[in-house]
Design a protein that fits this description.
Elements (H helix, E strand, L loop, with lengths): L5 E7 L12 E6 L5 H9 L17 E6 L3 E5 L10 H17 L3 E9 L6 H13 L3 E6 L6 H15 L5 E3 L8 H17 L13
Parallel strand pairs: 2-4, 2-5, 5-6, 6-7
Antiparallel strand pairs: 1-3, 3-4
Length: about 210
Amino acid sequence: MRVKSAGFIKSATSPEHYPRDGRPEIAFMGRSNVGKSSLINSLLGTKGLAKTSSTPGRTQLINFFLINAAFSFVDLPGYGYARVPSEVKREWGPMIEKYLATRPNLVLSILITDLRHEPSKLDLLMRDWLIEKGRPFVIVATKADKLSSNQRRTNLSRASAVLGKENPIIAYSAITRSGADRIWKEITTRVADFGSGKPLVKPSGSHAD
């Protein structure tokens, strides 16, 4: 995929504030400090479009970015950071769930984990929720460059055992962009399916191909 243009559209907290252009959307989700913004920026070849922060849990809005005037990346708030105030946590859950459950033009969810660590209970809950709702998704394990080849193989095997071998995991490095082609293939396939009119939501219990 050649990224010709990428720009911020808007931030939102509820459906009435979402963009209404009807373009296909790809949502990025994961624990706070998992490298979500770095993944987005790396895929797009930009340095600061998705804002990174040294303070995990700072992103508290749903952020929309228009790519090639054709589809959008959606940066969802990170989950699971202990120091976020409890009242903020209570708002995040319904905000994220409402978007994922109701957005008709959501074509793909990218569930992000940290390859250095075993997937968390929250990662498992998110995976289960996506499966239950029939939302197509892929799992991307970031920070692969911080591990040796042997460690990557071991940790991928461990993550696969936790998340299920039926859910392929793409190891990714925001530094080397290793794994980018596989991610873009998933994205472009889903965007093309949307344009062809194929149904977006799979039967309950299904997962990404």
